[in-house]
Amino acid sequence: xxxxxxxxxxxxxxxxxxxxxxILALLAMAPVLGNIAIPMRVKIGLGVLITLVVxxxxxxxxxxxxxxxxxxxxxxxxxxxxxxxxxxxxxxxSAVEMAGEIAGLQMGLGFATFxxxxxxxxxLVMGKFLGLFAALTFLSLNGHLLMLSVLAExxxxxxxxxxxxxxxxxxxxxxxxxxxxxxxxxxxxxxxxALLITNLALGILTRASPQLNVFAVGFPITLMVGMVTLMxxxxxxxxxxxxxxxxxxxxxxETAASTRKVPPDASQ
Length: 268
Known about the structure:
This protein is mainly α. It is built from eight helices and two strands, in the order H-H-H-E-E-H-H-H-H-H.
């Protein structure tokens, strides 16, 4: 007769539960895979499938009772690590959407906004367009598969344990967040520069001909110049987005590795 002890049941539970928690947390925060349009059942099923593939290769789990205070600490730790890794990749998409927000405001599309459920607020049409462009670029580069590969590698960079966090990983993630403003400004710079020249030309034209209705003439011109400049710039967006995605994958792994505290004798 086959019998199981409570220790065996706890070992099997923790070997599946803790990796699943980190994986589901990343899927909830990650771009494309964590989109609100994807049903929750699909996300949970994908997380369970990935866990069944990854869990046997992770190694031994800490000898901690899942229902104890220390076990709940480990569970919360996996949630935080997964969310931090997903946030590192979502920052890339936020940077691209911010470029669209800046370009749309300069083009006069500030009134063309619509409500988005994933951000609980209004988004400019141009920001949504560049966000979809970034998502298509991400999928064409197999970024979703690379992201899952980095997720599996994170279990070796930061194994599941009851060790407390280190502040280095959070500083690394905060520094990466600064990329939103830098990359967003760089991507929107061609449109902003073209519209600046257009507005200067319209200002000179208005001074030369005061009877010209600048509001009736200027808006179609700025909109047309912005659209043409954006269309010509899209070909140059792909390498920049590809570089940001590659850097985002590196930051994902570095965030997981840096949050692990190094023992005092490890640096010797």
